[in-house]
Amino acid sequence: MVTLAQVARHAGVSPSTVSYVISGKRSISQDTRLRVERSIAELGYHPHAGARALASNRSNVIALMIPLRTDMFVPVMMEIAIAITTTARRYAHDVLLLTSEEGPSAVKRIAGSGLADAMILMDVELEDERIPLLRQTGAAAALIGLPADPTGLTCVDLDFEATGRLAADHLADLGHREVALIGAAESVYRRHTGFAERTLAGFRQQASARGLSYLHRPCGNGHEAASGTLSRILEERPHTTGFVVQNETALPHLLSQLRQSGRAVPEDVSVVAICPDDVALHSAPQLTSVSIPAQEMGRRAVELVMAQAAGQQTSGLTLLGPTLTVRESSGPAPQIS
Amino acid sequence: MVTLAQVARHAGVSPSTVSYVISGKRSISQDTRLRVERSIAELGYHPHAGARALASNRSNVIALMIPLRTDMFVPVMMEIAIAITTTARRYAHDVLLLTSEEGPSAVKRIAGSGLADAMILMDVELEDERIPLLRQTGAAAALIGLPADPTGLTCVDLDFEATGRLAADHLADLGHREVALIGAAESVYRRHTGFAERTLAGFRQQASARGLSYLHRPCGNGHEAASGTLSRILEERPHTTGFVVQNETALPHLLSQLRQSGRAVPEDVSVVAICPDDVALHSAPQLTSVSIPAQEMGRRAVELVMAQAAGQQTSGLTLLGPTLTVRESSGPAPQIS
DNA sequence: TTGAAAGCGCTAACAT
DNA sequence: ATGTTAGCGCTTTCAA
């Protein structure tokens, strides 16, 4: 291991000078800076992370807690995680990956060990057990998702209520009168992950406002679940012509099922998906969708915790406005024959 | 922050004693141990990670380098990452997440900064740029995947050649004579990620040995790509009755396309998937498949790097034997009419 | 079975 | 603009 002291010797300066060249915390003459930088490069020096953390009381690490669950759409989580990691690097930070397996005590461990100087929590539940600890330790943190009481917390999420409203509006605008929301797996609702319920609330509200009759059904993963849910909806309300789907894994099954049942998209029924853009683009037909801005959510979360670590107050909600992109899967409601 | 010194004072012992109680590196009287442990619990003490890393020259962190690519099946990556994280915790280690965005230099940074005491690399290419650095730094490391020259490296992977052979054998056993391998996206082959080519090699070898005529086609993501690939195969070889599919995202599209083209599975054509079990189970019909043992790969990788960090020599390949599970998608070849 | 004390490599006052 | 130096909290000899 190359140490700072070795660099100092090699460059013919004092250790502190090397430190200051690296941190830029005081002005250095052009000449010394160059000599030091050359020595660093020549020796292949990298500061020892532990020593730095010990001396500076900052670890330059962000802890990211991801869920273990299997009922969430994994690619979105991954995209957020990657956005967090690449954004963190821009702030010279690394990301420590924690799973919820360890439970709420992970929050204590991280806060207590100086392993990370900020945390980002994903898949936040309405009454999340980690939140009291977060409040108590006062650690810099951002949540991706919305708990029941976000007071004093920093949260980032898509505005799912507006998303539900937007989708309902789009279908109403196209003249649909009977619509259905095909949602996430039942387990998601049962554990009160906020996003599913918020979408439903927004959807209901706007469907009512626009005089639509609507139905809501959770939907599990897999072909079985998807086609079952769909056929039960169609049995109950055969004249349903508009579907909002908030379940990425069910989408291909749903589409193939609609085709099989002789309903053409978008001539007979319209489909609005709530999903990442690439899923919408890779479906046939390409889906009208409200996109999940995974990258931006990750980026924002990092920016917020970095601002906190720099001493700023950031508490409050960052609700990203939904955008609906019209593609091939939605069209005017069929004339009543 | 609670420090070890505070714990020592609280328990009425010396700092070193507290340290030894924690590490278990020397025997402590029942009495002292209990007092110290109570103090630790009472004060909510957690060792400072940086200080510990500095003093012990071990960070208790494993670095995990994941790819940024979008052409891999994300859930498998995620499952491996999670298995690595939970297994690491069993060794009292945490996981640092790095993306390949930073490039090969990330290897240098990690090795040089003491940030991690071992690394696990995913999505290894045949001529991976990170490998020379790995050899050069001599860092404890495990690769998930197989490079062209694994000499001196520790690698974990599914035995994809055996997988290809196994799939070909299964179809041959069922009497199929014309078969096709629908593979990963072309980009995967182009960049010479080993697994796709190894599957193909095994498949070819055994198909030849069993006297099958075979075809191989890469297949992109999305409905468009999947149905295009399938119809081109059927155009070229209309009597193809056996398919091996190594492309999780294409599977639902392929199945719905087969149905649409009037081919029943498994009566008219058989499908063998190479995919995680849950994907096989959530398809309709449930798929005969060779499973991707994501969890085991992650677990093994951690065990191997931990053994290395403990000074053992582990270099060599760990190729997990494939298992084929017969489900509903494969059956006897139809009689030639 | 326990204590005392010397660092680990860095940062950040405090000097000049 | 640069150097000196006192820790940061822990591990681990060396001593008892």
UniProtKB/TrEMBL annotation, chains A, B:
<dbReference type="Pfam" id="PF13377">
    <property type="entry name" value="Peripla_BP_3"/>
</dbReference>
<dbReference type="InterPro" id="IPR028082">
    <property type="entry name" value="Peripla_BP_I"/>
</dbReference>
<feature type="domain" description="HTH cro/C1-type">
    <location>
        <begin position="3"/>
        <end position="32"/>
    </location>
</feature>
<dbReference type="GO" id="GO:0000976">
    <property type="term" value="F:transcription cis-regulatory region binding"/>
</dbReference>
<keyword id="KW-0238">DNA-binding</keyword>
<keyword id="KW-0804">Transcription</keyword>
<dbReference type="InterPro" id="IPR010982">
    <property type="entry name" value="Lambda_DNA-bd_dom_sf"/>
</dbReference>
<dbReference type="GO" id="GO:0003700">
    <property type="term" value="F:DNA-binding transcription factor activity"/>
</dbReference>
<dbReference type="InterPro" id="IPR046335">
    <property type="entry name" value="LacI/GalR-like_sensor"/>
</dbReference>
<feature type="domain" description="HTH lacI-type">
    <location>
        <begin position="2"/>
        <end position="56"/>
    </location>
</feature>
<dbReference type="Pfam" id="PF00356">
    <property type="entry name" value="LacI"/>
</dbReference>
<protein>
    <submittedName>
        <fullName>LacI family transcriptional regulator</fullName>
    </submittedName>
</protein>
<dbReference type="InterPro" id="IPR001387">
    <property type="entry name" value="Cro/C1-type_HTH"/>
</dbReference>
<keyword id="KW-0805">Transcription regulation</keyword>
<dbReference type="InterPro" id="IPR000843">
    <property type="entry name" value="HTH_LacI"/>
</dbReference>
